[in-house]
Design goal:
Layout lengths: L1 H9 L4 H30 L3 H12 L2 E3 L12 H8 L6 E5 L8 H11 L3 E7 L2 E8 L5 H11 L6 H14 L1 H15 L11 H35 L18 H20 L13 H18 L6 E3 L9 H16 L7 E5 L12 H12 L3 E6 L6 E6 L5 H5 L4 H4 L3 H5 L5 H14 L18 H5 L9 H33 L9 H4 L6 H28 L17 H14 L14 H18 L19 E6 L7 E6 L1 H9 L10 E2 L9 E2 L14 H12 L3
Parallel strand pairs: 1-2, 2-3, 5-6, 6-7
Antiparallel strand pairs: 3-4, 7-8, 9-10, 11-12
């Protein structure tokens, strides 16, 4: 009975047995729940970022982070929303600090959490980085391809999203065509940048400075130089003091000033860029939103219970177990003797596009000021993996925190570089161990004064064009103008030498006394006679043509100018010279006329050209007719033997020699080879021919030539 009762008590159908079955079943269900709860919680940890973002999209289909105010201010959310409505399908946009996650993997996790079909788009500071369509027809991949290929890197995220939306709105066929065209066109190179940087602006300023000085100075230097060279070029009339200067000397300076003004205006129109980025200027609220969020997050959890802030937008790098251990270590450090205190750990990304321009010291100072609590602030970047420590009011050795903090903690080792979470859990644990060993001080630490982050508007604003490297450019431009003058002078000298060989030109009158030889060779006389008579023929022909037309301007080099001589004088000189060469310049070649006749041709040709210019030319130098016009008469010795003197017309050089050293004048007397070709040279005054009339003037020389030729 007892056995049966006992068996029956727990057997099938007995009340006690039924009650025990329900208890066992309840225990089994409870065990199953407990066994599945832990994996579920652990599976939920990596998805906390997706859960947070899904909650944001549930409230608004466009979410713009507050961590990119310098590139994508939070206030641009309405612009993204306006563009998203143009796709024609439900569109959910996440604008996050990149790399914000695994691209399409993050979008898939957010979609699973949100549970709504549509086009999901991920945008970071560079533009559209990922897009996936769930349950709708949208050419997401082709639109992303077009936006990536057709736009340069500096186009900006808003413009990239706009291009993406436009392609989606065109439909699948057109999107596929544009994607193929973009890959073919930009497959090997990127489109040209839309913006320039500070270095490009420096180059523009430098080039503007070079042009501002090189061009005007070149005009001021080269135009007069070339004009003077043209006056001396082969075939040009010999410049003299009797020739009037230009009636408009102000033209060259005005042209230089006009060129400078034109360059300045043109440079301002061509180099009109004012910004180095497409980023719109943020508002004051944009620059404080992230700090406010961090501070409010710390206060919401209770500063005494949780001093660790984990950025919900970033990938999770600390598991719940790691967070619990970190809290325990922080509470232990706060209770430690001799200088312990609160530790605030901020797991927040630090990038150049945030409000502090990626400077952890500026971010920490802003959080400390806003929170109003002293302590040790630790910034751990979940994206970059860096750890920085800042002491505000604790009694810790500042050098050990600033300079002696191990690199394995600050930057991580090779293992940390390869880990997705940068091994931040292990490194933060090592940091707390290191803090326990940091020597304590008698006085609390004082906050260092950090330079503020650059203003966002100024950070993207280009310096003015007329600044920076403009000064060095002005100097280089001046040097360039001088170099251009030197090169032009050298080039014109070469050209002049070539032209003189092909088309010999008379030498300037002022230089004749210094260049004319005392003992000219027959070759020199033939060459000079051909040059002088050819120049007289050209000038006489031009003067005759201009006189016939009756419109010769007074400042034309080839035009005759009124003087004290009759125009008939030029004709008489030309006629007499042509008589000496039998009316043909070709006879000046060897053997040609004699040496005395050649000298007479040179003298008459120069006198004729002087008459065309209206210059007095009755006398030429009697010491050496090749010296050119005479300035007066003077008694000179014409022989080294005896003291016999003759009153001869002399040029300025011979007159000065006769006054300073009378005994040396005879050495300047021109001599000619003997007619027979034997014996020594003879003074030209003793040679046969018309030269004996030279001391009596040009008119007497003309008559002598005509008498010799038998012409009345």
């Amino acid at each position: 009975m007892h056995t049966v009762r006992a068996y029956g008590t727990f057997g099938t159908g007995h009340p006690l047995r039924a009650r025990g079955g329900r208890v066992v079943l309840a225990l089994l269900v409870l065990a199953a729940v407990l066994l599945t709860a832990v994996p579920a919680a652990r599976a939920d940890e990596p998805a906390s970022q997706a859960a947070y973002l899904a909650a944001r999209l549930r409230a608004d289909p466009v979410y713009v982070t507050d961590q990119l105010p310098r590139e994508i201010p939070h206030s641009t959310a309405p612009d993204f929303a306006r563009l998203a409505r143009r796709t024609g399908v439900p569109t959910y946009v996440l604008v996050l600090a990149g790399p914000a996650g695994s691209g399409k993997g993050l979008l898939g996790a957010v979609h699973d959490r949100l549970g709504r079909d549509g086009l999901y788009v991920l945008v970071d500071a560079s533009g559209v980085t990922a897009a996936t369509a769930y349950g709708v027809r949208a050419p997401a991949d082709d639109a992303w391809t077009v936006a990536s290929y057709e736009l340069p890197y500096d186009a900006g995220p808003l413009r990239s999203f706009e291009r993406f939306v436009d392609v989606v709105a065109q439909g699948g066929a057109e999107a596929a065509r544009r994607a193929a065209s973009a890959r073919e066109r930009y497959g090997d190179h990127d489109p040209a940048d839309l913006y320039i940087g500070p270095s490009d602006r420096d180059n523009q300023s430098f080039l503007t400075g070079v042009l501002l000085t090189a061009v005007p100075l070149s005009i001021l230097l080269l135009v007069p130089y070339v004009r003077r060279w043209r006056g001396r070029r082969p075939g040009a009339t010999e410049p003299t003091k009797a020739r009037p200067r230009s009636r408009h000397p102000w033209r060259v300076p005005v042209a230089a000033l006009t060129a400078a003004a034109a360059i300045a205006v043109t440079a301002s129109l061509v180099f009109d860029q004012t910004r180095s980025s497409a980023a719109p200027p943020p508002t004051a609220a944009d620059l404080t939103a992230r700090v406010d969020r961090v501070v409010e997050g710390l206060k919401a959890e209770g500063l005494r219970h949780d001093t660790v802030y984990v950025d919900p937008e970033s990938p999770r790098v600390l598991s719940s177990g790691r967070l619990s251990e970190l809290h325990d270590r922080i509470r232990a450090f706060a209770r430690s003797d001799g200088g312990g205190g609160p530790v605030y750990v901020l797991l927040v990304p630090q990038i150049s596009e945030d409000e502090s321009a990626g400077r952890q010291d500026v971010f920490t100072a802003a959080v400390h000021k806003r929170l109003g609590r002293d302590g040790l602030y630790v910034v751990a970047d979940p994206l970059g993996g860096f750890i920085d420590v800042y002491d505000y009011g604790l009694r810790l050795d500042g050098d050990r925190l600033s300079f002696d903090l191990p690199e394995s903690i600050s930057f991580g080792d090779r293992k940390a570089e390869q880990a997705d979470d940068h091994a931040l859990g292990d490194r933060l644990d090592a940091l707390m161990t290191y803090l326990d060993k940091v020597p304590r001080t008698d006085e609390p630490a004082t906050a260092d004064a950090y330079a503020p982050a650059p203003e966002p508007v100024a950070n993207h604003a280009l310096p003015p064009l007329f600044s920076g490297d403009l000064g060095p450019g002005l100097f280089v431009g001046a040097v360039t103008a001088l170099l251009a003058l030197a090169l032009t002078g050298g080039g014109l000298a070469v050209v002049g030498a070539v032209l003189r060989r092909r088309h010999p030109v008379p030498q300037p009158t002022s230089g004749l006394p210094f260049t004319a030889p005392t003992d000219p060779s027959p070759q020199y006389l033939r060459r000079t006679a051909r040059t002088e008579l050819g120049a007289l023929a050209d000038e006489f022909t031009d003067a005759t043509r201009n006189a016939a037309q009756g419109d010769a301007p007074t400042d034309t080099p080839d035009a005759p100018r009124p003087g004290i001589l009759s125009p008939a004088r030029a004709w008489d000189c030309f006629d007499a010279a042509m008589l000496l060469v039998d009316g043909d310049l070709d006879t000046l070649g060897a053997p040609g006329p004699g040496d005395a006749a050649l000298v007479a041709v040179v003298v008459l040709s120069r006198a004729g050209r002087a008459a065309l210019r209206g210059e007095a030319g009755d006398l030429c130098c009697g010491v050496n007719p090749l010296h050119g016009p005479a300035v007066g008469r003077h008694h000179v010795r014409v022989s080294a033997e005896g003291t016999r003197r003759r009153r001869l017309p002399v040029c300025e050089m011979c007159r000065n020699t006769a006054v300073a050293d009378p005994a040396a004048v005879h050495s300047l007397l021109m001599t000619l080879p003997p007619p027979a070709g034997d014996g020594g040279r003879v003074p030209y005054l003793d040679a046969d021919g018309p030269l004996t009339a030279v001391p009596r003037g040009i008119p007497r020389l003309i008559d002598k030539v005509r008498e010799t030729a038998g012409v009345q």
